[in-house]
Design brief:
single chain, 261 residues, six-stranded mixed β-sheet, 31% helix
């Protein structure tokens, strides 16, 4: 069984299409999407349409904070993100094609807050607050990690920070700092073997990576045991030019794509 786990597409159609093409080459059986299909980028309608297609093989789609903000109300957003959300909402609500209602229903009614399958938990933000809480790699020295790991059945997959990696927990008595963060480039062949210890895995971002690598990022789980982080190049310039043509999307949203931040 090959399962793809994607997150934070952020209306970046070119990145989404490139990742789907990579999945097709791998023969992916099913896909878990961890949210933020929309927000920031220039193609919200097209990305939602693509997510809804049966051939995309999305089994479960989680609601991200940008998805929530687009259909309800943005909270805690900076001015650039908030302006992009209001523009995104307008694109969805004022669409004049036959898929308008289906899109709105998908984003507002069909996205899950969290999803559990066996000992695997799928969220956008964290096990404690699935939609909005960030878990940064710097948090491994924070007391909140004990509570977060206490809510993990065995393995929790998440996105939200746009930075891929594995949060590990070592509960042995001699360990001073039990929590650690391992980035994909610290792993052999970008692969991580899921063992008996609890882990939280951030799968990175398809549409707006922030680990200084501009390529789209996602993860593939082989037979529920071996996880591979994959990087996929896409036509960033095309996405960038689209953003420049939309006054309500700040140029910074295009520039950051080139820098992977």
């Amino acid at each position: 069984m090959k399962q793809a786990i994607i997150s934070d597409i952020h209306s970046n159609l070119e990145a989404f299409q490139a990742v789907l093409a990579d999945m097709n080459e791998l023969g992916i059986d099913e896909v878990f999407c961890l949210g933020d299909l929309i927000g920031y980028g220039p193609n919200p309608k097209e990305c939602v349409d693509l997510a809804m297609k049966p051939e995309t093989k999305i089994k479960v789609c989680i609601m991200g904070n940008h998805d929530y903000a687009a259909v309800y109300e943005p909270g805690g957003f900076n001015s650039v993100a908030e302006q992009a959300i209001y523009w995104t909402r307008e694109q969805l609500e004022r669409a004049r094609d036959s898929k308008k209602e289906e899109r709105l229903d998908f984003v507002s009614g069909q996205l899950k807050r969290a999803y559990r399958e066996g000992d695997f938990l799928f969220v956008h933000g964290s096990p404690k607050n699935p939609t909005t809480e960030y878990v940064f790699k710097e948090d491994v020295r924070d007391s909140k990690m004990e509570k977060l790991f206490g809510l993990v059945p065995h393995c929790c997959f998440m996105g939200h920070t746009h930075v891929p990696g594995v949060f590990t927990c070592d509960n042995s008595p001699t360990t001073v700092f039990p929590y650690d963060f391992v980035s994909p480039d610290q792993l052999e062949n970008n692969r991580y073997k899921i063992g008996s210890e609890k882990v939280m895995i951030n799968v990175g971002s398809v549409g707006q990576p922030r680990d200084h690598d501009s390529r789209a990022c996602y993860a593939v789980l082989y037979d529920g045991q071996l996880l591979e982080f994959r990087r996929v190049p896409y036509d960033i310039e095309k996405t960038y030019q689209k953003i420049l043509q939309i006054p309500d999307l700040d140029n910074f949203l295009g520039e950051r794509l080139k820098q992977g931040r």
